[in-house]
């Protein structure tokens, strides 16, 4: 897999937060989970699932995401850099984080 998209969605019927990672080419959900809270810890858990299921077959090279606090991307420095537990987690796996443009949801999904 060359690239994937990650995002969170609220399921109001169940009162749960859903995190999903979609393959950029096939649009197939390749990892995901339902949680009570949308946070960095649960986001890393979904990354762990991705690694467990697909890493030996085809490691991910890029992960496209919004500027959500669950990714730590809401704290961007003036030079465009940012740091978070989530970013360090994916970079240690060799995944390049790509931030979608602010107020442009089309970037994170087709």
UniProtKB/TrEMBL annotation:
Gene Ontology molecular-function annotations: nucleic acid binding
Signal peptide: none
GO biological process terms on file: DNA integration
InterPro entries: Integrase_cat-core, RNaseH-like_sf, RNaseH_sf
Ranges for domain Integrase catalytic: 1-110
Superkingdom, natural source: Archaea
Designated name of the protein: Mobile element protein
The species this protein was found in: Methanosarcina siciliae HI350
